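Inputs:
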Amino acid sequence: MYKKIFLIFFSCFLASCSTANWYKPYGYLLFSQMPKNGSPGFKLGWIHGCESGLGSQFGGAFFMSFYSWKRDPDIASVDPNIPRIRARYKKELKDVNWDNPAEVKKNLSDYNTIFWGAHGFCHGSVLGVLYTADMEPPLPGQDRFSMNHGIGNVFKLGARDTRLGSSGMW
Amino acid sequence: MFKKPTDSVLKILTNILLIILLSYSLSACRWITGASTPFYSWTNFKIPEGTPVFQAGFKDGCSSILYARGNDFYRSRYSYRYDPTMIGNTEYRFGFQRGNSWCFQTIISPVTGPRNGGLGKFLFVYGNDSWGFDASPGSINTTGLFGGNVANPISTDSINGFFDVLQKGTDAGGVGGVGYTTFGANPLWSGGSSGQFLGWY
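Outputs:
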């Protein structure tokens, strides 16, 4: 019995390992939504964008503890330093044919194009989750932690779901 | 001269009348009259007219934002969608952005917008909380159109607060509207001494 349970959990563990940041808060749910058929540059840009979005103020102090700004300045540069990029992302960009300038350009372009899209999606998602639990991320100048933001708020999921109605005649 | 209509004839006429009235009622239904809108609560979003590429982008953009800013109900139905093979297609990206922004405006309404409770939240789908000011006539009369809470983190809690920051800057702690003078006057009310608005009457 315990062996079966262990095997089930272990299988899930192995299956989730292929997803970036699967072990971080909200990591598996968000990063598993990354489109699978993108170029290596697209995937790297998507992951960096999502991490940057989750590490923004929209996620509040909690998510900022796990994620941070990730956009690569060399890839974002108008004059990208190819050797440095190649050395930095040996694993992530291993499928890029570095001898083909057009392919390199396409990958860097994909990175920069999708970065902000993924950023917007992920910062919107984490803000949406906080709102759903009737919480709001602290803004600059406000306390980093409020007792109203206790861990018990996870049980408030759906607090702003007006389909059910939180007040009034429903 | 005229024959009195029989009961069966009256019954048929009554039925016809009922069918006509029912047709009128059904055709006035919001789900039918609003069928061309891209999205309506409880239903799948509608895709506006356009090329297939635009429509694909619109659909993906809408789905992505419905997941991000929707509640659990929407998260169970939608997810992030983006076709990487279309990343170089400006028409697809245009559609994506349009779908994203349109559905964003719609989804934040039922989720975080009108929280007054009651059926009114369905009537006033754009709510008032989400836009930051109460546009009801009574509120405008008492507190003014700019008396809401759009700029909640800013000291004056209003659209006026945005301009308040421009006028006064921020203090050392980053709190807006209480620091040093950036402009000599609040640009929102500039233009004269008789309560003019952006230089207009």
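Remarks. Confidence is low (pLDDT under 50) at residues 112-157, 180-185, 190-201 of chain B. The radius of gyration of chain B is 26 Å.
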